[in-house]
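Lab notebook: predicted structure, single chain.

Context: the supervisor wants predicted structures on file for every construct in the current expression panel, including those that have not yet been purified. This is the next one on the list. No modifications to the sequence; it matches the entry in the shared construct table.
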Amino acid sequence: MSLSSIELWQRIAAEGLASPMQCRSWAAEAAKSMSAADSTDGIQILRQLIELGKLTNYQAKILAGQSDRPLHRGPWTILRRVKDPLWPEWLEVTKIDLTKAQQPPATWVRWIVQDDLSAWRSSAPSLPRGLQLASVQGRYLQDV
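Prediction complete. Output recorded below exactly as produced.
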């Protein structure tokens, strides 16, 4: 799939991942290490933005049209799926504020529906599952 640089920057701004002013700044930063031909190719720009830490692979795939997963859920911007077999349904998210230079730290969330709550209330966690969860280590988790 072909993606022009103009279309890419429009998508980034439209999705609220960066303001138009931030897009211009990112474009200038990305162009420093790209050839003139690559700077008009949206896919090449996406690769560079990932290397610069401006976007995640998850976000780039959606912007490129390679995934139909959501970029947002309510006020949250989804950064990536948590890559841990113990947490398959969890997402790493943040609340992006385009008016601030420093963005808030990311956090892990799992969206649930009302039916899930009913099922969880009726069954207490098992001891093996509790021990398994207590042994999990991660940079966002406090030691148990």
